């Protein structure tokens, strides 16, 4: 067998550039690029390897380890998990900065390859700079913190180990059932070692996304159950989008006469005006979807992990409702005593449809759904209409941004009040143009994720970010990254004076406003509240920017932003107290004892709410 002598770092990189996949019949690199911040642990060996292949595997300089990995996640979302980005950090704080991003990828079932420097395996110079020592566990390093937020975790202690480790990591990231982040720790002294690798390890490989077919027995049982349904409901999740099953599910819903709701991750699989669509489901959902869920006798959940924001903390459904869970992951398919169909969403839907024969739901169910959804849309029109209020609502702002967006533009948001407001108010114009990171609800994803989307879109539309002032203050440096790299995004900063939605939750549960809005925080009296000029801040990072004093100003500014050649930031003050109505309730902790009467009343309400919870596993 022919062999080639390379350092472990060089071999790792050479392996990555020889992996390929197909998107719409076109062969492309599986790894489209790398995000890197170099430092102690990855600057002398891994950077040397990446520098040599920068044309095949371009390396993009991040400003923050967390945000560059979030950009990699945004890229994976935009590519529907068919292409992957690498993110590399130094040892120590560089690595731990990226743990949050790994949690985002893990919760959202998204692939990203995380390569972090690690301390010396030989331990000769211990303790090294940035090393955290564990007295009773010398082999433990900060990289062990990734174990809780990675689907695949490994630390390379011999250069030959990458021969088996890398294919396993890639196989996991491309498996619809197990998809998530892969972490590999790279000790400095192992990166530098030269080893005779077999040529076969570097042969070009074409990977494909598997489409596991469901069990015929599971499909037959699902058909038997569905044919008993009088008031069924479909819930479309993120797995529908990643499977490319949106069109098939949309046709299935119409042909079978079943109303179709969606999760936050699933939003964008169908258009807002699809004839079977009734809007998002759950806490940030439509009243139409909520009422249809409450009356559903059989629920077909496709490609969703059924988190609490979808299920209203499991209070939205009748205790007698039966579930058919279609999911590539057995773990999700088995939830809440469901009848599972374990398989790819597209293939499973095709087989379920074929097995149903001529069965359709009673027409009254869809007729009622259309009526409920029409009522919801009329309510939305009222919320989005211009008023003489001093400050505009989120609903009004989202409505104007939605109106100005091109059909190829992708809206990106996460955490705070904007997820609920965009999920309810955004009317999707084209499939897969909506990204709300709410699996991990990560403040700071918005701008970083949009940078990744801009790379993936490569000029085919513009990512439009909706971000609150709280998230902006937490992580904004990728405005600078997008300007440096030439990947244009449009950012709308909605300044409501602090953490508006968490203040809503706090006061809604009876606690006086405290430490959320700036006006309720401990600040120097003369600076109460201190105003941040977000437009000037963005300009200082090289972006174009405007402050908008009204909804009319915003509309004009959006027209201008669509014509600019680089990242453009628009700032508008918004009302922290006006929220779009609708949706289910949420299970939260409320003190059993309190001096506040308002808290005691909220506790009573929570106890009544919890009595409606569906018990499951």
Question: Could you characterize what this model shows?
Answer:
With 617 residues, the protein is α/β, with parallel strands linked by helices. The chain has 4 domains: 3-207, Thiamin diphosphate (ThDP)-binding fold, Pyr/PP domains (Rossmann fold); 216-375, Rossmann fold (3-Layer(aba) Sandwich), CATH 3.40.50.1220; 385-573, Thiamin diphosphate (ThDP)-binding fold, Pyr/PP domains (Rossmann fold, 3-Layer(aba) Sandwich); 589-617, no CATH class. The protein is built from 24 helices and 23 strands. It has a 6-stranded parallel beta sheet, with helices on both faces. Strand 16, helix 13 and strand 17 (339-342) form a beta-alpha-beta unit. Helix 1 (8-17) packs parallel to helix 2 (46-52), helix 3 (65-78) packs parallel to helix 5 (99-107) and helix 16 packs across helix 17. It is globular. The model has no long low-confidence stretch (mean pLDDT 96).
- The percent range for helix content is 25-40%
Gyration radius from CA atoms, angstroms: 25 Å
Overall morphology: globular
CATH class of the largest domain: Alpha Beta
How many structural domains? 4
What is the name of the CATH architecture of the largest domain? 3-Layer(aba) Sandwich
CATH superfamily of the largest domain: Thiamin diphosphate (ThDP)-binding fold, Pyr/PP domains
Number of strands: 23
CATH topology (level 3) name of the largest domain? Rossmann fold
Multimeric organization: single chain
Q: What percentage of the residues does DSSP assign to strands (E)?
A: 15-25%
């Amino acid at each position: 067998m022919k062999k080639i002598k390379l350092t472990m770092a060089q071999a790792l990189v050479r392996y990555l550039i020889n992996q390929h996949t197909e998107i719409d019949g076109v062969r492309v690199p599986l790894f489209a690029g790398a995000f890197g911040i170099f430092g102690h642990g990855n600057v002398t060996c891994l950077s040397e390897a990446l520098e040599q292949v920068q044309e095949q595997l371009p390396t993009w300089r991040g400003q923050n380890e967390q945000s560059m990995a979030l950009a990699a996640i945004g890229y994976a979302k935009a590519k529907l998990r068919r292409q992957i980005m690498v993110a590399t950090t130094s040892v120590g704080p560089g690595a731990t900065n990226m743990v949050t991003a790994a949690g985002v990828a893990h919760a959202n079932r998204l692939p990203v390859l995380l390569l972090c420097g690690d301390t010396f395996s030989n331990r000769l110079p211990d303790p090294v700079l940035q090393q955290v020592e564990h007295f009773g566990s010398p082999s433990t390093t900060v990289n062990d913190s990734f174990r809780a937020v990675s689907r695949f975790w490994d630390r390379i202690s011999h250069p030959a180990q990458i021969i088996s480790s890398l294919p396993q990591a890639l196989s996991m990231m491309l498996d619809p059932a197990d998809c998530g982040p892969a972490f590999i720790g790279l000790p400095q002294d192992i990166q530098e070692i030269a080893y005779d690798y077999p040529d076969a390890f570097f042969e070009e490989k074409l990977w494909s996304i598997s489409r596991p077919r469901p069990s015929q027995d599971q499909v037959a049982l699902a058909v038997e159950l569905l044919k008993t349904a009088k008031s069924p409901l479909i819930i479309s999740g993120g797995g529908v989008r990643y499977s490319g099953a949106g069109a098939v599910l949309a046709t299935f819903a119409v042909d079978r006469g079943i109303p179709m709701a969606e999760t936050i991750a699933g939003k964008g699989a169908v258009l807002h005006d699809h004839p079977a669509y009734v809007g998002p489901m759950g806490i940030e959902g439509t009243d139409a979807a909520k009422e249809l869920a409450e009356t559903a006798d059989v629920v077909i959940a496709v490609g969703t992990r059924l988190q609490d924001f979808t299920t209203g903390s499991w209070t939205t459904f009748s205790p007698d409702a039966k579930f058919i869970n279609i999911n590539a992951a057995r773990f999700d398919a088995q939830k809440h005593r469901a009848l599972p169909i374990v398989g790819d969403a597209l293939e499973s839907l095709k087989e379920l449809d074929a097995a149903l024969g001529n069965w359709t739901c009673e027409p009254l169910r869809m007729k009622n759904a259309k009526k409920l959804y029409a009522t919801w849309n009329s309510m939305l029109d009222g919320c989005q209409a211009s008023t003489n209020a001093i400050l505009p609502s989120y609903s009004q702002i989202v409505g104007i941004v939605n109106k100005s967006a091109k059909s190829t533009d992708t809206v990106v948001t996460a955490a705070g009040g904007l997820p609920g407001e965009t999920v309810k108010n955004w009317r999707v114009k084209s499939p897969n143009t909506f990204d709300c990171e709410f699996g991990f609800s990560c403040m700071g994803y918005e701008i970083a994720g949009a940078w990744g989307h801009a790379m993936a879109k490569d000029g085919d539309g513009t990512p439009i970010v909706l971000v609150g002032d709280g998230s902006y203050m937490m992580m904004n440096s990728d405005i600078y990254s997008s300007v440096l790299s030439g990947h244009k995004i449009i950012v709308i900063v909605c300044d409501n004076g602090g953490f508006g939605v968490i203040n809503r939750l706090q006061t809604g549960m009876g606690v006086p406003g405290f430490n959320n809005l700036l006006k309720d925080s401990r600040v120097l009296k003369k600076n109460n509240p201190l105003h941040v000029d977000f437009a000037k801040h963005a300009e200082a990072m090289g972006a174009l920017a405007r402050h908008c004093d009204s909804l009319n100003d915003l509309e004009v500014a959006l027209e201008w932003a669509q014509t600019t050649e680089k990242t453009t930031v628009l700032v508008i003050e918004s009302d922290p107290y006006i929220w779009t109505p609708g949706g289910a309730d949420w299970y939260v902790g409320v003190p059993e004892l309190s001096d506040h009467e308002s808290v005691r009343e909220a506790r009573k309400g929570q106890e009544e709410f919890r009595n409606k919870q569906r018990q499951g596993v």
